[in-house]
Amino acid sequence: MTTHTICSVTDLIGHTPLFSLQHPLIPANKKLLLKLEQFNPNFSVKDRTALGLIQTAMNSGKLHPGGTVIESTSGNLGKSLAMLSASMGFRLIVVVDPKVSHNSLNWFKSYGAEVEVVSTPDVNGGYQKARIDRVKALLEKYPGAYWTNQYDNPDNPNYHEMITSQEFINIPVDMMLGSVSTGGHFGGIVKGVKKVHPKTLSMACDVAGSAIFGEPFHPYLLNGLGLSWKAQNTDLAIFDFLNNVSDQDAISLCRLLARDIGLLLGGSSGVVIFSALVALRLPEINSVLAITPDSGINYLEQFYDDDWLVEKGVIPLSKEQLEIRLSCNADKFYEEMIIHDEI
Ligand SMILES: Cc1ncc(COP(=O)(O)O)c(C=O)c1O
To answer: What is the pTM of this model?
Structure first.
């Protein structure tokens, strides 16, 4: 047997495992496959997005070795850009706000990234605009620096359409499911797969409270997915179905799967797998593929911590309660599908 040797962390990105989930919540004779993005080297799907944004900028001459990359992020994209900047020799400046976790700050700094903390909120009381203003000020200060701009930069969905989707086109399933924040990752994959398999259904999943699907925003507990607005990179017309899942349903499912299967998943994975279990309760859907974006390692001090749950007032549901929630959701979804078909 030969051993394949690699020389760069970039070679560890992608080709994540496909996991056939076996669990009593899956209806008999139905199939649920998970694409486990936590097996990327920095533990999330954002390794792919970061690589796509950096490679495309280099190919087009907007970024050169030794150059400076700037991004506003306190989450997984920042961690992935920090890893790539260390590996590829860029200077990275990450713009964050005071809500950034201590863990994320140490993560960025461990890779040698510089961190700019915005301390004054913008006129809306949030930090989103204040962070973007700081990015713009840094771009003026460092001429030639490159802003990856994951929310609006079309290189994000385009990379996933051209490259990431190739890992999905040979997996025959009735429906694919993924969660959305910028919309770049799942939107790109669906576009790429539909070119080859136009009949494969897609369901974009989000946390209840997020405004991406056009509903009024209210605060939610999960991280990584959702937004209080909709990014330019999110094209909802690409998807066949949209589904929102509550914090409680997603968290309960993640905690259950950790104990029953030994898979420690992030909260957005709970959203996608809950949606997949709803979809599998519809008669037409026999096999689904759910993309799980990151690892529970990011949330050990959040919803995997019993005290945190008490503090936030979340009561985890049992397997039996989840079964009831899934059936109710499936009934509601089925009615909506019929109404949709009749219109
Ligand atoms: C943890 C995490 N990372 C990445 C993503 C992918 O998001 P995007 O839509 O920004 O590509 C999601 C989406 O839900 C997520 O939850």
So the answer is: 0.95
